[in-house]
Amino acid sequence: MSTIDSFLKAGVDLAAAGVPVLPLRAGKVPFGNCPACAHNRCGGRPNMKTPGPCACPQPCHGWAAATTDPTILNSREWAPAWRAAAAVAYHPGGAGLTVVDLDNAAAVDWAQATLPATRRVPSTRGEHWIYQGVMQSSNAVRPGVDIKSLTAYARWLGPGIGTMAALPDAVRALAVKEPAPAHKAPQTLSVPLTGGQRECRHRTPTYLERGIAMAEQRITEARSAIHTTVYRTFLAVLSTHGGCGCLTDTHVARLFTAAQAKGESIRHCADAWTNARTALGM
Predict the structure, then answer these.
(1) What is the pLDDT of residues 141-193, one digit of tens each?
(2) Rounded to an integer, what distance in angstroms lies between the CA atom of residue 118 and that of residue 215?
(3) Parallel, antiparallel, or unpaired: how do β-strands 165-166 and 127-132 relate?
(4) Cβ atoms within 10 Å of 197's Cβ, excluding its own
(5) pTM of this prediction?
(6) What is the mean pLDDT of each run of 10 residues along the chain (282 residues)?
């Protein structure tokens, strides 16, 4: 088996186990995985935390390109990336994981003295410690230590050794620079909600509550194409619930919160909401 075939096989095997994957080129850099974005012609930066700017039908940059869909992994559009691949990466947050990337021996010594034992994977200069659970990614939380979970990718370096532990508070605390403010999604909403012109279909509050809960679940359970999932979910919510005036800031804030937990920015949430309203003529 060629090196190229082995990368693709590793990716397909990981995807089958529920781990979203993507190919990396030399230098641990992602590809633009569509013809329009090859070699970043669309203007997207390969290491940025959100894809774009581009007009692709689905995300194609960095962690957001990671997928568990074998049809995409084996597609003609991704074939050039696999042919040029130098490594396989995965989206830890999409697999429900957090990677503590220890970049040197001193960082490994610190982790051994400070963090709960968990699965360990040797890296080029140090180790990856993998925990079960997700959090926001953060670089340089201390010398030689990065956290990779949501909105990040990590190289696949093998299954590692040891039993995977639950994500501890000691790791979460590393990313806290100051006391976390109260969530501000309702205050930062700068998009209108509804037109309020259609007949109300919400005969009971339960109907709307069930719709919002299902939308939250759909976003939360997305493993790939996060941007597309968020937009389509907003579109479905507005189509069903957005025409009569019952949808409130609190409901929208819940959807934004679910999207932000998957790594979306408040700006992207607002843009997706506005685009969905425009598509529906609201």
Answers:
(1) 899 999 999 888 999 999 999 999 999 989 988 887 544 444 444 334 445 55
(2) 34
(3) parallel
(4) 9
(5) 0.59
(6) 74 93 87 65 49 54 84 86 91 93 96 95 96 90 92 92 93 70 43 53 71 87 81 82 78 87 82 78 72
- Cα separation, 206 vs 210, in Å, equals 6
The CA-atom distances, in angstroms, between 158 and each of 4, 11, 42, 128, 167 are 17, 12, 33, 10, 20
Q: Which amino acid is at 11?
A: G
List, in order, residues 6 or more apart from 3 with CB less than 8 Å away: none
